[in-house]
Amino acid sequence: MASMNSIIQVLDNPPTRWILRMLIFLRYKQRGRKIEAVKSHKDFGAWEFRIDGVSYLSSGPGWAYDYEYLLTQLKELSGYAYLPIKGDTVIDIGAGVGEETIIFSDLVGSGGKVYSVEAHPKTFRALSYLVAVNDLKNVVHSNVALSDIAGTVSIDDSDNSLANTILSTPKKKAFEVDAETFDDFVERNNIDRIDLVKMNVEGAEQLIIRGMQRSLSRIKHMAISCHDFRYKNGESEFFKTKDIVLQFLEKSNFVVVTQNTANSMVDDYVYAYNPLLTSGFESNV
User: Fold this and answer.
1) Which parts of the sequence belong to the Methyltransferase FkbM domain (predicted)?
2) CATH number assigned to the domain covering 67-273
């Protein structure tokens, strides 16, 4: 019997997506979820699952996207060392289609704020849709690339939105996007406290940290997804970032921890806290 992933792969094509939508709908119903809609948004390349009155987006079809699933993913990855609480301010860099943004928004509540940053224009359209359809009033979303200097950068436009990154050598299939430093972004948005910086930007973390000098004293916690696993899989040295990030954080007097799970993607996450602002990893560690 074919696996669920095999079924998805076979049916995720324009002529058969209606069958896939029906199967996904039925699978959610079997799990006892109040599912209202399953949609494939061609214009911004994402799937929408509307469950219990809330729309969740994914870059691909699936059987499990809901609040509990996304919260579990968050706790295992960017929220492993610190999970935001009511009233927090979160900067979500590399927000993608908003999988974590929607959870951050709920966790910080009406008294908190989430600043979601997504550089890729097409992916940003998905993020904008998520914010609008769910009326996320505590989310400010920005289509900008954070980098080491202000100006413009080229962003890859591959079919896999999760793998798109800043390009050192422009390609035909790419977007030119406005760029600014993290410090300038913080000042432009008048952000005076930052409880968590989450960063998942496919190698560009090494650029962003160079532009966050003035803001370091405002940051309590960081969760940075490094991408050495992509380098080890034969991709560019641009993705070899973990040592760069570790050295930067330790030099900046942050306390640092990593995971040791034997899953290279998970273990390339770097978590840090500022001992001048908080006493430790107040969440899962």
Assistant:
1) 92-254
2) 3.40.50.150
